[in-house]
Specification:
It contains six helices and eight strands. It has 180 residues and is an alpha/beta fold. Strands 1, 2, 3, 6, 7 and 8 form a six-stranded parallel sheet that branches. The chain has a two-stranded antiparallel sheet with strand order 4-5. It binds flavin mononucleotide.
């Protein structure tokens, strides 16, 4: 699984969610993290000269992953720009690596809604790029300031259980899509 957080700040709650996922993996699952910091803002003129090296790495790492795990921040009731930008780069031909890739999503905010609005927009975007996600379980982490320490490490045991459940569902979903 390739884990991608839709936030660049070091103490990000969403980076913390992806790190926490590495600690609650179901048997047989491995999770690598891709940091979006070096990914440039999408520019068609740049693309016309060839994918920049960080974008090439992102696309290659997605292509070889069996499944993806996104942790999206919520900005103005939608997906964070950095995550949308990464999806945009990865959606471009040739052979867009997002196509038919199994996906699980989650997200954390300091507010009450726990990225629910961002995740519903993210689901819409997924339809367009043919990222295949499942309906349940959903993981909306609200009131994040009470669940993470100052470095952005998840300290809440209940949230950890929800992440574990999401990863189990992702494993089952990935196998189902492969007809296993
Ligand atoms: C431009 C901007 C817009 C935001 N809009 C929302 C929002 O609509 N809903 C929400 O719950 N939090 C919103 N926030 C607060 C973010 O959820 C908060 O900064 C969060 O910590 C970002 O995720 P991170 O911790 O992974 O960086 C917004 C923050 C910024 C900078």
């Amino acid at each position: 699984v390739l884990g991608i957080a839709g936030s660049l700040r070091q103490a990000s709650y969403n980076r913390g969610l992806i790190r926490a996922a590495t600690e609650v993996l179901p048997d047989g699952m491995t999770l690598e993290i891709f940091d979006l910091l070096p990914i440039p803002v999408y520019n068609g003129d740049v693309e016309a000269q060839g994918f920049p090296e960080p974008v090439r790495q992102l696309r290659d790492r997605i292509a070889v992953a069996d499944a993806l795990l996104f942790a999206t921040a919520e900005y103005n009731a939608s997906v964070s720009g950095v995550l949308k930008n990464a999806i945009d780069w990865a959606s471009r031909p040739p052979n867009p690596p997002l196509d038919a890739k199994p996906l699980a999503m989650m997200g954390a905010t300091p507010g009450m809604l726990g990225t629910s609005r961002a995740q519903y927009h993210l689901r819409q975007i997924c339809v367009n790029v043919n990222l295949l996600t499942f309906a349940k379980p959903e993981v909306f982490v609200a009131n994040a300031a009470e669940k993470f320490d100052k470095q952005g490490n998840l300290t809440d045991a209940t949230t950890r259980k929800y992440i574990r459940g999401l990863l189990e569902a992702l494993a089952a979903w990935t196998r189902k899509l492969r007809g296993e």
